[in-house]
Amino acid sequence: MTATLLCFLLAAPVLLVAGSPVHDSNNKTVPLVLWHGMGDSCCNPLSMGAIKKMVEEEIPGIYVLSLMIGKNVVEDTENGFFKDVNEQVSMVCTQLAKDPQLKGGYNAMGFSQGAQFLRAVAQRCPSPPMKNLISVGGQHQGVYGLPRCPGEHSAICDMIRKALNSGAYSDLVQKHLVQAQYWHDPLNDDLYKKHSLFLADINQERGVNETYKKNLQLLEKFVMVKFLVITFNLLHSSLQTETLQESVLYKEDRLGLAAMDKAKKLVFLASKGDHLQFTNEWFNANLLPYLR
Ligand SMILES: *[C@@H]1O[C@H](CO)[C@@H](O)[C@H](O)[C@H]1NC(C)=O
Ligand SMILES: CC(=O)N[C@H]1CO[C@H](CO)[C@@H](O)[C@@H]1O
C-alpha cells in the first residue's frame, strides 16, 4: 500500500541579513503577525528577528508583531515543544484581540508549525480579521517523523522522537507534546482521527464545524510555500506526496478549500531550498507583495 503525505519537516532557523528599520508617520500599512517554528523563538536575531527587521525596512511604518508564547524567549522556545497547542492558539487569539494596532485587520505569516497554528487562529478567531495567511513550510496535513530538528535542541528532539514513536496518540503524549498534536501517521488514520487533539480538530476529521469553514473563507489569500528539497527527497522514499487538490481534505471539502481555490484565494509557491531556507531576494520577490 502507498500512504500519502504532504510536507513533513520541522524548523531550522532561517538565515537572513537586514539593516535598521525606517519609520514613516504617514503610513497605510497592514500590520503583520509572525509565528515562529519549532525550536525557534519570537526574537532570535538570525530568524524571526531578521525577518521582522527586513519587513520593517521594506515596508516603512509597518507594525510587525512576532509572537512570544510565554513570558520570555526561553519559555517561548520551550512552549514550542511542550505547551498544549489549543491553549497556545487561544492565548494568541486573546492577545490579538487586545492589540489596538490590529483592530483594522492584519496579515499573518507562520513558519513551519507556526503556520498551522495561525490557520487555527483564522478558523477559530475571526476578530480582528486576518487578511492574508502566509504559510512558510507549514505542515497542514501533519508530520510523520522528525527528520530535521534544530541542532542545539537535538537532545530534546531525540526524547520527542521516542515519545512519538512509542505512543503519539496516547492522551498523555497528546496533552504534553506539541508535535504529537500534529502527528499524522498515514498508516494509522483511525487513531489520528480519534485522538489528535489539534490537527484533527482544525482539519475537521471528526465532523465539519461550519464556523471553521466560514472563517477560513474570510481570508483574502492563503499562500502556501513549500520547499523543493524536501519534496524531492520524498520521491525516493516509499511514501508519495499528493497535491492539496488530491487530498481527502480538499475533496471532501471540509474547509471550503475548493471554493477558495476557485476564487483564486489559494496561492502555491515553491522555494528551491531545504526546509525554511530561502534568500532575501526570494522573500522580497515572492512574499512581500502579500504584505503590502
Ligand atoms: C465550532 O467552532 C467555533 C469556533 O471555534 C466554536 O465556538 C464552536 O463551539 C464549534 N462548534 C462545535 C459544534 O464544535
Ligand atoms: C511608525 C508608525 O507610525 N506605524 C504605524 C503605521 O500604521 C499602522 C496602522 O495604522 C500602525 O499600526 C503603525 O503603528
TrEMBL record:
Substrates-to-products reaction catalysed: S-hexadecanoyl-L-cysteinyl-[protein] + H2O = L-cysteinyl-[protein] + hexadecanoate + H(+); S-hexadecanoyl-N-acetylcysteine methyl ester + H2O = N-acetylcysteine methyl ester + hexadecanoate + H(+); S-hexadecanoyl-N-acetylcysteamine + H2O = N-acetylcysteamine + hexadecanoate + H(+); hexadecanoyl-CoA + H2O = hexadecanoate + CoA + H(+)
Entry protein name: Palmitoyl-protein thioesterase 1
Keyword terms, alphabetized: Disulfide bond, Glycoprotein, Hydrolase, Signal
Catalytic EC class: hydrolase
Family: Belongs to the palmitoyl-protein thioesterase family.
Signal peptide: 1-19
Species: Anabas testudineus (Climbing perch)
EC number assigned by the record: 3.1.2.2, 3.1.2.22
Biological process annotations from GO: receptor-mediated endocytosis
Any GO molecular function: palmitoyl-(protein) hydrolase activity
PANTHER family attached to this UniProt entry: PALMITOYL-PROTEIN THIOESTERASE 1 (PTHR11247:SF8), PALMITOYL-PROTEIN THIOESTERASE/DOLICHYLDIPHOSPHATASE 1 (PTHR11247)
GO CC, one annotated term: lysosome
